[in-house]
User: Fold these one by one.
Assistant:
Number 1:
Amino acid sequence: HLLGTDNFGRDILSRIMVGSRYTLMIGFGCITIACLIGTLLGALAGFYKRLDNLIMRLTDIVMGIPTFMLAISIIAALGTGIKTMMLALCITSTPAFIRIVRAQVLTIKDQEYVEAARSIGAGNLRIMTKHILPNALAPIIVQATLGLAGAILSIAGLSFLGLGIQPPTPEWGAMLSNARVYIRDAWHVTVIPGLGIMLTILSLNLMGDGLRDAMDPKLKN
């Protein structure tokens, strides 16, 4: 037992490794769904003025509610479980993508190459899929990377409160919750899952910053 055992004699290293599978799987799934929905709604809001007000006002309403409290409310209403937690995180993560994609579409749709495509008879769908969205991918990728770090932190927080993944399934936040009463007698039981969360989020934030710098045309000299 390289990292010791918990209060039930279970190997912490193996539980950390298995718990990473659940945490990363849920995080990737939530951000992927939020990215797809947010990209679609943001593109519609930026491209069609009639839909802009409706979509953005609904987005403002969702963003006006504290993210963590909204997730807790959804889980409290629908019950605990992986599917409910994924639904809550998808709802809370989508507005950021909507705003970013809308801003990019508003900037790109007035460019000369878009007007040239429209002048030769290209339809709205072709302009959107072939000319606008491919040129708006850079900030979407960066937001997805940074959003994944936030989703992992939310997953751990919800599981710590008992609203996420339920024991005995290993998950970093749930491991912290179960071990917090032993922090004075066996500090490693709490510190090791906490370090796993911290290092994962730090790595994703550094990767997001690196992608942002690499994809920013102003920094390419």
Number 2:
Amino acid sequence: SRGLGDVYKRQPLHRALSLAEHAEANSVYYSEARRLGELITRDTLATGPCEMVVMTGGGPGIMEAANRGAMEAGGKSIGLNIQLPFEQEPNPYITKELCFQFHYFAIRKMHFLKRARALVACPGGFGTMDELFDALTLVQTGKIEPLPILLMGRRYWQRVLDMQAMAEEGVISDQDLRLFEYVDTAQQAWDRIRAFYDLSSD
């Protein structure tokens, strides 16, 4: 029979497998972010004046996907990149003259939210959470005008953030649960944004 030593040796492999399975499940959001970048850019170019432009954190992964979709649709996109000791090189799909480098997170977020007309948060880590809760807090407290805050991937977000529990604990109000919506596809996200701003579908 196998001893405890064999069990412990196998744990890192089980963990690696679990992470790989989650990565595979979440890879769909790369495709959806790319599609959203395409939808926003294509529809905006078709209407004439530049009403909406894709803006991301400028890094790899899902951020890259949105910039890529915009480029493939024939438009420009913005990247607000930040200097980090790992992982944060500007992706190659940002419009060159619209790639900006920041040193401080706070200044970067200020520029994001000063210009944002919608926020679509795809599954992510601490940085994504930081930006999401900053936006929610500023809308909740009336420091910025309301805007669509869309959480892409209901399964992920409801698993990692139990907003309903926060309301039940009384730390946020039931009304605060209306500050955001869940979406699962790029088309759903774009439809919500268009409806919020009453953009014509012509």
